[in-house]
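User: Predict the complex with 9-methylguanine.
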Amino acid sequence: MPLQFGDSALDLSQPRVMGILNTTPDSFSDGGQHYRNGRLCLDLVLTRAQQMLNEGADIIDVGGESTRPGAAPVSEAEELERVVPVVEVLVRELGAIVSVDTSTPAVMREAAVAGAGMLNDIRALQRDGALDAAAATGLPVCLMHMQGQPTTMQESPRYREPVDDVKQFLRERVSACEQAGIARQRLVLDPGFGFGKNLNHNLELLRRLPEFAELGCPLLVGLSRKSMLGELLGRDVSERLPGSLALAMAAAERGASIIRVHDVAATADVLKVLRALKPTDSSTTKPSTWEQA
Ligand code: 9MG
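Assistant: Here is the predicted structure with 9-methylguanine placed in the model:
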């Protein structure tokens, strides 16, 4: 089923790449990249977004709030200032499908007016007014699971059973969205890797990702450069590309439709290889060589 972005539709029968574009001075992994003399620079933003589109990104995810543990909270005015001009310029200059990573109702509304194609909320529209704001935009929305708040979420995450608990949370948020007038066809779901989860929780969620298909919505995953790779491999953020690609491949093979990444070119190559390996009509109808022998 394609996901409708205003007038255009994105076919999700093959996994798609969402490129991360942070407009924060302090985000995990790439914060401050688009600042010059202490100010957000739209030329740097445009250059980076164009590069990601050339490398195979289907969606650009713009975020104005850092969610790394310990990050300073951002005011609504500051978030608007970081996000809205970026959405405008990416849509106007590049015709990109822009997703906006926000939990703030005013940012949802203003970003939609500026031409955003999708909302990505790590708080699954739980902030006051977020359900109504998202409903009013008419945009597709990604609902992500997070246990706790970004500042403290990694202190001691606990689950009765991680897959069942995360699925139950997402089921309830889908139902809240439907009651608020957001049709299920507009929803994308995300288990929220690294958001209030330890390494075992993350691995179990990824291992059992196919079970999330029963919720009836496409799945988005964000695993790129995350601390689970630091823990698993003992690697610094700058050394996590091979691990990130392995996780992207595992997620795509387990049914993820959208993969949110920093390293677009390498991830697009992985997905291309996986596509080439997909069974074709002829390979499923023709006897294979060992059957003919
Ligand atoms: C904003 N953000 C950071 N990590 C993320 C993830 O894993 N999923 C989604 N949907 N958004 C994320």
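Residues 2-292 form a domain with the TIM Barrel fold (CATH 3.20.20.20).
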